[in-house]
Amino acid sequence: MRDPFALELRSSADGVELRYPLSAALYVVITAAVLLGLMYPVVGMSPGLGVIWRVLVQLTVVGAAYQVVWLMWLSTVRFDFARNQVRRGPVPIGKASDIEFVEPSPHARAALQVVFSDGHRTVRRWRIPGVREQQAALLGLQLAEQLHVPFRRPPLPGS
What we know:
This protein has two domains: 22-74; 82-147, no CATH class. Helix content is 40%, strand content 25%. It contains three helices and eight strands.
């Protein structure tokens, strides 16, 4: 079974996006509905706990909506060529033209990083959140190809 939280690479004429698939948001909604369904016989049918049940439903709906918004918009990494910027949701990360290469990262929850270098040769590494180790090599190659920069693999131990 495919991981519903594995990032997807989407390219367009003016940029490249790394985003969670729609299945991740669907997974959150289904999980919230199942949890509410499991709690209903205990809390929802009790006449004295009606207020608590309504509060639980409202908190679950708000929490699921927030999680869906975070997954589908706030966590999307966009490499925008038209505006020459890299953003994660609304937060600017750097300039797309300053990207030197893409390489694996030693961090398990952000297993891919982009290396920026400005005109003064100042190097800055930015780990891409959400990239898992299993998908880092393939996703890194695809991203480097779309960004027209090299993908650097770390040297093998003992070589």
